[in-house]
């Protein structure tokens, strides 16, 4: 999966890539208050009450600074698209979810295949099972 910086990696491990991306798109580059309780909080508004409770249990309450640059704009879409491709989603699913053209998603898949070939020495793309 995509390498995320610092606390974003911890968040992703706790609540998953989709909700992490949503949180970073909304609040990336800012200080975020992790409340004592999820109901009615900004955090719950962004990622949902259940995920907010998981994050509170994982990180504890307090303030954190969320990273920003790679989770906004084109870099965010590219990162999310590659993560979805690695998870086995189709070109069309990825294109629709990430607001990209299928040709762009196809290029990202080719990049992943080249990276996989460089690491594993094989031209066959390894699907996660």
Describe this structure as you would to a colleague.
The radius of gyration is 16 Å and the shape is elongated. With 129 residues, it is mainly alpha-helical. The model has no long low-confidence stretch (mean pLDDT 85). The longest helix is centred in the last third of the chain and has 19 residues, at 102-120. Helix 5 (73-86) packs antiparallel against helix 6. The protein has 7 helices and 2 strands; from the N terminus they run H-H-E-H-H-E-H-H-H.
Which class best fits the helix and strand makeup?
Answer: mainly alpha
Radius of gyration: 16 Å
Order of strands, widest sheet: 1-2
Q: Tell me the overall shape.
A: elongated
Give me the number of helical elements: 7
Tell me roughly what share of residues is in helical segments: 55-70%
Report the average pLDDT across residues: 85
Number of strands: 2
Distance between the termini: 14 Å
Q: Give a short account of the largest sheet.
A: 2 strands, antiparallel
Helix-strand string: HHEHHEHHH
């Amino acid at each position: 999966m995509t390498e995320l910086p610092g606390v974003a990696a911890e968040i992703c491990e706790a609540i998953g890539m989709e909700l992490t991306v949503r949180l970073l798109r909304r609040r990336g580059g800012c200080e975020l208050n992790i409340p004592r309780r999820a109901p009615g909080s900004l955090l719950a508004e962004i990622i949902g009450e259940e995920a907010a409770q998981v994050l509170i249990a994982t990180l504890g309450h307090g303030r954190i600074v969320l990273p920003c640059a790679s989770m906004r704009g084109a870099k965010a879409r590219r990162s999310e698209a590659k993560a979805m491709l690695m998870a086995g989603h189709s070109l069309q699913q990825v294109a629709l979810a990430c607001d990209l053209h299928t040709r762009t998603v196809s290029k990202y898949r080719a990049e992943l295949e080249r990276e996989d070939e460089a690491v594993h020495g094989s031209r066959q793309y390894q699907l996660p099972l």
